[in-house]
Amino acid sequence: MPDGKPNFTGLWEALGTADWDIRDHYAQAGPFYQLGAIGAIPAGQGIVDGGEIPYTPAAAKQQQENYKNRVKLDPEVKCYMPGIPRANYMSFPFQIVQSQRDIAFAYEYASSNRVVNMGKFKEGAVDTWMGTSNGHWEGDTLVVDVSGLNGNSWYDRSGNFQTENTHIVERFTLPDADHINYEATIDDKTIYTRPWKISAVFYRRKEKNAQLNEFKCVEFVEDLIYGDLEKKK
Prior knowledge:
Helices cover 12% and strands 27% of the residues. It is an alpha+beta fold.
């Protein structure tokens, strides 16, 4: 950029299976046997540093209940915004547009987006799915402080969850022109015994005419969410 800072502008995507489970996981059958191998869960290496999320006993029990009822409770099933950090490593690309001031993130899933304020720190007016992002530079690393989350987001399809007290600090670093090293430190004293961190790599989409497409999924879930309210014939 003209100011000498790295330019993150581009179309990016994570590889891997973190959206299924941010922890190490083996291949297993999906919740619906009728889907056979199509609905199966692929094996994957986790992105949690150290492998485990330091839940309190009560929170660990809640995660297990979430997992058992994931088909009904996972916000992704209902096309809610994915929240941070989940939006970054879903199996959809996202686009970064960097100006001389603020930085915009546009996500293909559910047309979600956020703007990273690079000016004076601003508190969020209300809690939201994507939270409030304030950024600054530490050398060539973009550091984003995320607060004001509404606490309804999950980290994956395995029921790992956050609350309205969750605070996240993201770090984006460009080791070269086509990769972003991503880290997020997560803190919430109400459900975790200590702060913990995830690490992932985002890859630049370089196909000819690569672009961000639309995945507006609300119309796909209307019957799921509101079907019981329909007037019976």
